[in-house]
Amino acid sequence: MSTFIEYSQQGAVVTLTMQAPEQHNALTSREQFDAFVGACNRINRDPEVKVVILTGAGKSFCAGGNVKDMKARAGLFQGDPYQLRQGYRHGIQQIPLAIYHLEVPTIAAVNGAAIGAGCDLALMCDIRIASTRARFAESFVKLGIIPGDGGAWLLPRALDNLSKAYELAFTGETIDAPQALEYGLVSRVVEPEELLASAEELAQKIAANPGHALRLTKKLLRESQHVRLEPLLELSAAYQALAHHTEAHEAILQSL
Fold first, then answer.
1. 177, 228, 230, 233 - which has most CB atoms within 10 Å?
2. Do residues 49 and 14 touch, judged by C-beta distance below 8 A?
3. What is the strand order of the sheet 188-190 is part of?
4. Distance from the Cα of residue 65 to its chain's centroid
5. Nearest alpha carbon to residue 134 among 91, 168, 73, 185
6. More confident site: 1 or 102
7. Neighbour-count burial of 30, counting CB atoms closer than 10 A to its CB (0-12 exposed, 13-18 middle, 19+ buried)
8. Residue 108: HSE in the Cβ half-sphere, 13 Å Cα cutoff
9. 190 pLDDT tier (thresholds 50, 70, 90)
10. What is the side-by-side strand order in the sheet with 174-176?
11. What is the mean pLDDT of residues 135-156?
12. Residue 156's pLDDT is what?
């Protein structure tokens, strides 16, 4: 069992909490990457789970890659260029793949700084709620590197304003929670003491709906990002045929 990811389940809602507050929940080790993959696999195997909340312990959401390791060429950042490439592919890049393929809706409860890969980690979630203490930065260029964990794919899809996405990526500047709300990076901003309660309230609203409908709807929304209308309609027809033959759908109809 991972010590980095605390896995807590209350009914249909799972809360994943990064538990390295002294390191600002920085992402560097194989154990951390495997923890995300393991948690996501566990969620997908559990039909009782309908929603996931992701947050961080301590003052930060996630500080991204460990700069000390980067400077020392240790952990994720060790080796020659070929080894580094393989390290990214089989290391931190497993996180966006695992979270992207989560079958249930995900909510990032961003309690503090979300910097670099930490910003991208929040972007991997379907919905983002920010504390007033949250800060966001797609800061890779500040270190002379690029978004190695999928940020170049995630950021433009998270913002309605493509120009703003480019601006954040090219400047690496840090924005506060109100700016993140203005840019559409988050859907709401709340006081720190209200953050988890707000995320849980939203999670319960989502979880009130049938699990199969949530999972199929999320799959369609994911597919809609990269297919034409015609194949999406075909997939929608197939999913709808399944949904019409579920007990939950029948029970709802009978209650009307």
1. 177
2. yes
3. 5-10, 13-18, 51-56, 106-110, 127-131, 188-190
4. 16
5. 185
6. 102
7. middle
8. 26
9. very high
10. 60-62, 113-115, 135-137, 174-176
11. 95
12. 94
Reading the block at residue 83, the tokens are 């080894």
How far apart are alpha carbons 234 and 16 in whole angstroms? 35
Beta-bridged to residue 107, according to DSSP, are: 53, 127
Cα four-point dihedral sign 57, 94, 8, 157: positive
Q: What is the pTM of this model?
A: 0.94
Q: Are 8 and 57 in contact (CB under 8 A)?
A: no
User: Which residue is listed with tokens 């896995």?
Assistant: 7
> Mapped to the 3 state alphabet, what secondary structure does the chain carry?
CCCCEEEEEECCEEEEEECCHHHCCCECCHHHHHHHHHHHHHHHHCCCCCEEEEEECCCEEECCECHHHHHHCCHHHCCCHHHHHHHHHCCCCHHHHHHHCCCCCEEEEECCEEECHHHHHHHCCCEEEEECCCEEECCHHHHCCCCCCCHHHHHHHHCCCHHHHHHHHHHCCEEEHHHHHHHCCCCEEECHHHHHHHHHHHHHHHHCCCHHHHHHHHHHHHHCCCCCHHHHHHHHHHHHHHHCCCHHHHHHHHHC
Distance CA 18, CA 51 (A): 17
Is 90 exceeded by the pLDDT of residue 114?
A: yes
